Amino acid sequence: MQSEPRPKKLLEQVRDAIRMKHYSYRTEQTYLQWIRRYILFHNKRHPNEMGVPEIEAFLTHLAVSEHVAASTQNQAFSALIFLYRHVLQMPLDERIDAIRAKRSRKLPTVLTPDEVRSVLQQMSGVHRLIVQLLYGSGLRLREAMQLRIKDLDFPQHQIVVRDTKGQESRITMLPTKLNHPLQEHLQDVKRLHQRDLDQGYGAVTLPFALARKYPNANRQWVWQFVFPASKRCKDPRSEAIVRFHLHESGLQKAVKLAVRQAGIQKRVGCHTFRHSFATHLLENGYDIRTIQELLGHKDVKTTMIYTHVLNRGGRGVRSPLDS
User: Fold this and answer.
1) Where does residue 96 rank: exposed (0-12), middle (13-18), buried (19+ CB within 10 A)?
2) Is the distance from CB of 196 to CB of 232 less than 8 angstroms?
3) 140 noted as active-site residue
4) Alpha-carbon separation of residue 162 from 20, 30, 177 (angstroms)
5) CA-to-CA distance for 292 and 238, rounded, in angstroms?
6) Positive or negative, the Cα torsion across 5, 33, 78, 142?
7) Half-sphere exposure (CA, 13 Å, Cβ side) for 187?
8) Which residue in the list 127, 140, 193, 275 is annotated as catalytic?
9) 42, 232, 271, 280: which is the annotated catalytic residue?
């Protein structure tokens, strides 16, 4: 007699629900981590035995004892809301009154055009090309890494940025200055892809359920990553051998080194080039709504922070000492 299949554990159910909604692998890992921490915080009690008071206690602990940022606390809150709403089918009707972490009011770090050039002069190869895209197109780091061949439109001088933060696509400019370097880079990528195909590989991960709908699409040229990794690896979801895109950490280290070599005394990361893109467009007279669309901000209030950067310090006010 065939035994009954064992019921799935809670975290397996969470994983299935996340994949049903086509959330990214990174979101899947993040939500699972927060749900584990929530359960451990309450001495391994099952979440269906808990509710609003326990969620409030956990979120308050994060803010008061662990001093997490507001964005981190919101991330944990989103994971728990997902757990109760989509896995346990227990919508939380009561108001959740946890002590909230304080939001940072820091202005973004922005480089001058000369500082951007000095950093780029310290870089070479693929890393230099990616930073040029971050600054020249206003891309987030993950958006640049996840670009596929079909997303580059050279005749129209534009990039289609897909599956962005908020799961909405947008269009931004492809700098003319990068046409030739990018096309040369893609020739190397195409040779790498052909070598993979000759060895019986050549597949990449596809978004959502496209791999089932189009079984051979993952080996087609247009679906390949613009910045592929140097080595093939196992897809953590399908367990197929694929070539993923470059890991973000390599570029982050390269930027840190270039900033130090350029002698720039600012706290600069990859996202600084996106901030600089927006601020320099404002300085050049482009309107805030256009910049909002290029950045992919849902609310213009998010974009307005760059006007504060322009109006602070020596840029907006003349010192009385200089009068």
Assistant:
1) middle
2) yes
3) yes
4) 19, 21, 23
5) 36
6) negative
7) 5
8) 140
9) 271
Residue 24 has pLDDT above 90, yes or no: no
- pLDDT, the chain, mean: 89
Hey, is 250 helix, strand or coil? helix
Q: Is 180 assigned a catalytic role?
A: no
* Whether the Cβ atoms of residue 228 and residue 69 lie closer than 8 Å to each other: no
30-65 per-position pLDDT tens digit: 999 999 999 999 999 999 999 999 999 999 999 999
Within 10 angstroms of residue 253's Cβ, the number of other Cβ atoms is 11
Residue from 15, 193, 274, 275 carrying the catalytic annotation: 274
Q: In the annotation, is 128 catalytic?
A: no
Q: Are 70 and 102 in contact (CB under 8 A)?
A: yes
Catalytic residue of the set 22, 165, 234, 308? 165
Instruction: Tell me which of 127, 243, 275, 297 is the catalytic residue.
Output: 297
> Nearest to residue 233, comparing CAs of 242, 224, 225?
242
CATH class entry, domain 113-309: mainly alpha
**Residue 193 designated active-site:** no
pLDDT, one tens digit per residue, over 176-213 is 999 999 999 999 999 999 999 999 999 998 876 676 77
DSSP state letter for 84: I
Residue 87 in tokens: 């896995």
CATH number for the region 10-87 comes to: 1.10.150.130
Q: 225 near 186, Cβ under 8 Å?
A: no
Strand segments (E) across 33-134: none
Catalytic annotation on 274? yes
Of 146, 133, 137, 143, nearest in space to 225 by CA: 146
In whole angstroms, what is the distance from residue 224 CA to residue 146 CA? 10
Taking Cα atoms as reference points, which of 31, 23, 17 lies closest to residue 208?
23
6 burial via Cβ count (<10 Å: 0-12, 13-18, 19+): exposed
Which sequence spans correspond to the domains of the chain?
A: 10-87, 113-309
Please tell me the distance from the alpha carbon of residue 243 to that of residue 57, in angstroms, as a whole number. Answer: 43
